[in-house]
Design goal:
The complex is a heterodimer of chains A (749) and B (163). Chain A has 749 residues and is α+β, with helices and mostly antiparallel strands. Chain A has 19 helices and 27 strands. The termini of chain B are far apart. The chains are: A alpha+beta (749), B alpha+beta (163).
């Protein structure tokens, strides 16, 4: 394997994509520039990265292995994670995976964020995505690891998203790093004990020779083992031997989150620091045209008013004077030519495009026009922009001093954040350091495609003689989001005399194709999906489970409509269109059985089912719901069955399904971002309502099927089936079909 | 003019302007960052502290209103010997937090509820626990409150089939 990769090596072409004419947004989480190269490897990495990592992490008496692992002579084990644990428990899971294969003593393992440096670019992630996109992981197996690692570092890939941490970083990299390091430790031990490797075993950070009742600690072997070259394809454990994986180990990050000691970006401070807040052009795309600084400067504690191209910022001794100063200003902004854009204008454009029938991309098979016949069942659906509304508003601190720039805070891609600051500041990469901190929620908002906050704080810091923490108010955070796209769909279906679907058609309009996140699970003779493209002045965001939410809502609601139109029970109707023996069928049958599908319910309560596959995980919900006196929905019980292939930490996985389900219900019931004159009309939790505890289901039965299939994601897949299962339950309860979300229309119109 | 108050049992003088919300005085002047900024309009509860034992959204109370009163923040919940409060222990057992940002406020709201009601019913929990959690940890918040007050779980939510 070459240590010094060159770009002369030819890239294997991705496998041909069967669907014709569809623009594939190859990278699942929003189309960043990793498309095209499409080549990443496991990061039992090239030697340059390994050497740099060792220099960055290993002090005296400490030894670095394959970038991501450090074993100290006192037996402590440190794992460096390229993922930002936003609360999904993924770092605990990653530690379990590496420590499992290493046979490490769990109480001596700690996990810390990897430095935001290119040596720690996440190569396993890229490889995992590529394999999934083409459906042929084999095509990258022949590519030298060193080359793949090199490419990932060029791409600054250190992202968290796409439900990727455990299934890619974990399976592709961390388990192998653990296993390969264990083998190196055993080889050194064999030499020292003068016995064959085959007579050795490992447990709790010890290599054991039971015949002679001797053992050596990993700490004692680490120095010499670190000089060995590691096996790139070590054999992994049989799951039957697992001691740490598949166990509900308590999450490593939780104790600091119950006593106030956990430090988020918002909490960072350094001596002499000032606090700034900011307001950008309300109509995205607009510029700052004028502002009189005097009213802000009159506020005690305000030190500066800084004009940026499209925003105005107030710098003060603390947040309160800063926001008081900002609110005293009357800045004028242009609308960037977007003054005519509104929620209604976007839906109108969608309708017109669909009616015109000239899609930007299409997928499917069969002659859909003939299949639909003269009288198909038809329905039009509409969903709004959705906001992430993470609990911690953006807050980053930056300090430019002596030609160096330091930034502290939490983003989903620390390395890309650093490179953004390099680009904006004009400094060399060596002069910029991004210090990753805990993140107070993200759900896709802190991805590198929309990092205005990094640019803003860099611009402020470059012109201030002191450190500055930039905090976005909640109003700014709501109004300047990167929203799940507003979308509309026109669905058509024909059911034949045997009550089987003869043809199914989904014409949907939004900013970008949803094809990458649309897995249509039913086995139909004729199916078509057409995408109609219409831009707005809003950024197309990746919102927890990305396009799977609206596509899941469309398809699973319409399947229900077709079932009722055919006069067939909704579970039975779905069964009739799933392949015998498939994972989907087992998930559906299991959720029907666990929920008591078909058994009587109290008066006024309806039952709805939905099943969606996203990020390679299949989730089905059965929801029991009714309508409250005030007309709002009440969710009584949720039954969920999940097939994610296998589960690393069952309790942490369950927490993700609980939370994902609630986020899906919250958005379905009350959330909408609407536009008028190109600007967002919502401003805070008062008009962007998030579901509260009293409205969360009192009963949520969650069951995992361990099918052993390739590991799917767990952070996102609980979301998509929630909205259609609720809408279908409300139909069962009331006979009224929900085709527009949110169910409580919050739109001010 | 400094404002005299008590925070976590210690007498303090707050120097900020009198209209400064308690939240920002606690965070920026006293450096107690466990109390979080979430919305600034008392809608989310991430900033919940106790003022004279009452759960209070500190982003919307000026420090001029708390002169002479007693404030408890998340940092003041542990015992003098550093032992976690029973509610904090229950939060760990139930593995409640995900991102964790709202949890200081959730815990302060829960402690106040328990101090008031002893063993809160589901309806009392629904009424009192109005803090927002975007991660959706509500089922575990409920479970932890019930466990912390020695009540039997209402419904089992143990994972099945995952071994």
């Amino acid at each position: 394997m070459a240590d010094n990769p060159t770009l002369e090596m030819e890239a294997p072409a991705p496998a041909p994509v069967k669907r014709k004419g569809v623009k594939r947004r190859m990278f699942l989480i929003g189309g960043v520039a990793v498309v095209g190269a499409g080549l990443f490897g496991i990061s039992i990495a090239d030697s340059n990265a390994v050497k740099t990592a060792a220099k960055l992490t290993a002090g005296k008496g400490e030894h670095s292995f394959a970038t991501w692992l450090k074993i100290a002579e006192d037996n402590s084990i440190t794992i460096y994670s390229p993922h930002t644990d936003i609360g999904q428990g993924s770092n605990t899971g990653l530690a379990q995976m590496l420590a499992e294969e290493l046979d490490a003593a769990w109480d001596q393992v700690k996990l810390v964020p990897a430095p935001a440096e290119s040596a720690f670019a996440n190569t396993g992630l890229g490889r995992g995505f590529l394999g999934e996109m083409t459906g042929q992981p084999a095509i990258i197996n022949g590519v030298p690891q060193s080359f793949l690692s090199f490419v990932a570092r060029q791409m600054n890939l250190q992202i968290t998203g796409g439900s990727s941490a455990l299934r890619y970083t974990g399976q592709v990299t961390f388990q192998k790093v653990g296993a390969a390091t264990r083998l190196a430790l055993m080889e050194v031990a064999a030499k020292r004990l003068g016995v064959p490797v085959g007579e050795l075993a490992t447990q709790d950070s010890h290599v054991i020779h039971s015949k002679s009742a001797r053992s050596l600690t990993y700490g004692a072997l680490a120095a010499e083992a670190a000089t060995q070259s590691l096996d790139n394809e070590p054999t992994l454990k049989d799951p039957k031997q697992y001691r740490l994986m598949r166990q509900s180990l308590p999450r490593l990050d939780i104790p600091a989150k119950v006593d106030g000691t956990a430090q988020y970006g918002m909490d960072f401070s350094v001596p002499d620091m000032r606090v700034a807040t900011i307001m950008a052009a309300p109509a995205r795309g607009g510029k700052l045209t004028s502002v009189d600084a005097a009213p802000a400067m009159a506020v005690k504690g305000v030190e500066k008013v800084i004009k940026l191209d499209d925003a105005v910022s107030v710098v003060a001794s603390g947040y309160w004077p800063a926001i008081t100063g900002l609110r005293a200003l009357s800045p004028e902004f242009s609308d960037g030519g977007n003054g005519s854009i509104s929620t209604a204008s976007i839906f109108k454009a969608y309708d017109d495009l669909i009616a015109k029938g000239e899609p930007a991309g299409e997928a499917g098979e069969g002659d859909v026009k003939a299949g639909l016949g003269a009288k198909p069942v038809e329905a039009k659906y509409q969903v709004p922009f959705l906001h992430h509304a993470m609990m911690e508003p953006f807050a980053l601190t930056a300090h430019h001093k002596d030609g160096k720039l330091d930034i502290w805070g939490g983003m989903q891609d620390p390395l890309a954040s650093k490179m953004k600051a390099v680009e904006v500041s004009g400094l060399d990469a060596d002069a910029v350091t991004f210090h990753p901190m805990l993140i107070g929620g993200s759900f896709g908002r802190r991805l590198p495609m929309y990092m205005e906050i990094v640019e803003q704080v860099t611009r402020l810091a470059m012109q201030l003689p002191y450190p500055v923490k930039l905090i976005w108010s909640r109003e700014e955070e709501i109004a300047q989001g990167a929203y799940r796209p507003q979308s509309a769909a026109f669905l058509q279906g024909a059911v034949n005399a045997n009550k089987r679907i003869a043809a199914y058609s989904n014409d949907y309009a939004q900013t970008e194709s949803a094809e990458s996140e649309t897995t249509f699970i039913y086995d139909l003779p004729v199916v078509a999906r057409r995408h109609y493209e219409h831009p707005s002045n809003q950024i197309t965001g990746a919102w927890r489970s990305v396009n799977s939410t609206q596509q899941g809502f469309y398809n699973e609601s319409f399947m229900d409509e077709l079932a009722h139109s055919a006069g067939v029970d909704p579970v039975e109707f779905r069964r009739n269109h799933l392949k015998a023996g498939s994972r989907h069928l087992l998930v559906l049958d299991t959720v029907a059985q666990r929920s008591g599908w078909g058994t009587p319910l109290p008066e006024g309560v309806g039952r709805g089912v939905a099943i969606v596959e996203s990020f390679k995980t299949i989730v089905a919900h059965v929801i029991e719901a009714s309508v409250k006196e005030d007309g709002s929905p009440k969710v009584h019980k949720v039954f969920t069955v999940v097939d994610a292939g296998s589960i690393v930490n069952p309790d942490a996985a369950m927490a993700q399904i609980e939370g994902g389900t609630i986020m899906g219900l919250s958005s379905a019931i009350g959330e909408a971002i609407t536009l008028d004159k190109g600007a967002v009309q919502q401003s805070n939790f008062t008009d962007y309502p998030i579901l509260k505890l009293a409205d969360a289901p009192l009963v949520h039965d969650i069951h995992f099927i361990n099918s052993g299939a390739y590991m799917g994601g767990i952070g996102e897949p609980g979301v998509p089936p929630a909205a259609p299962a609720l809408a279908n339950a409300l139909f069962a309860a009331t006979g009224k079909r929900v085709r527009n979300l949110p169910i409580l229309t919050q739109a001010k119109a | 003019m400094a404002i005299a108050t008590t925070v976590n049992g210690k007498a303090v003088m707050l120097e900020a302007e009198p209209d400064t919300p308690l939240l920002w005085a606690v965070r920026e002047e006293l450096g107690l960052t466990g109390t979080k900024f979430g919305c600034g309009v008392a809608a989310c509860g991430a900033c919940t502290v106790h003022v004279n034992g009452e759960p209070t959204r500190s982003c919307s109370v000026p420090i001029s209103d708390i002169a002479g009163k007693s404030v408890t923040t998340i940092e003041g919940l542990k015992g003098a010997d550093g032992t976690l409060h029973a509610v904090q222990k229950a939060w760990i057992s139930a593995q409640v937090p995900q991102c964790g940002y709202c949890q200081s406020g959730q815990i302060m709201a829960a402690v106040a509820l328990i101090q008031k009601t002893g063993k809160p019913s589901n309806a009392q929990i629904d009424e009192a626990m109005t803090n927002i959690c975007r991660c959706g940890t509500y089922p575990r918040i409920r479970k932890a409150i019930i466990a912390a007050t020695g009540q039997a779980a209402l419904e089992s939510t143990a994972p099945e089939g995952a071994a």
